[in-house]
Amino acid sequence: MLARLRAIRAEGGYEWWVRRTRWLKEAEASMQDVLDQLEVLRRQNEQLRAEVAGLREYVTAEAAPPTQRD
């Protein structure tokens, strides 16, 4: 990324600034996409943890001796 900015800057002038600004906007949008994906994964992780907790309770209850199940 820095190499790309240095190459653009080497060209100099206003064009460098325009390209740098465009690149920064693209990078910001890309980072926002990653943050959005992380949020989706975080929610999925919470759902899976809840499902696993429920399955653990079920398995523990089924593994208990019959007198304790009733």
Protein described:
- The protein has helices at residues 2-11, 13-63, 66-69.
- It has 70 residues and is an all-alpha fold.
- The protein has one domain (2-69).
- Helix 1 (2-11) packs antiparallel against helix 2.
The H/E string reads HHH
Helix-strand makeup class: mainly alpha
Shape: rod-shaped
Q: Average pLDDT across residues?
A: 87
> What is the helix tally?
3
Helical fraction: over 70%
Low-confidence stretches: none
Question: How many domains comprise the coordinates?
Answer: 1
Binned strand content = under 5%
Major sheet description:
none
N-end to C-end Cα span? 64 Å
Number of strands: 0
Radius of gyration: 26 Å
In short:
93% of the residues lie in helices and 0% in strands. The chain has three helices and no strands. It has one domain.
Secondary structure topology:
Blueprint: H1 2-11, H2 13-63, H3 66-69
Keyphrases for this structure?
single chain; 70 residues; mainly alpha; rod-shaped
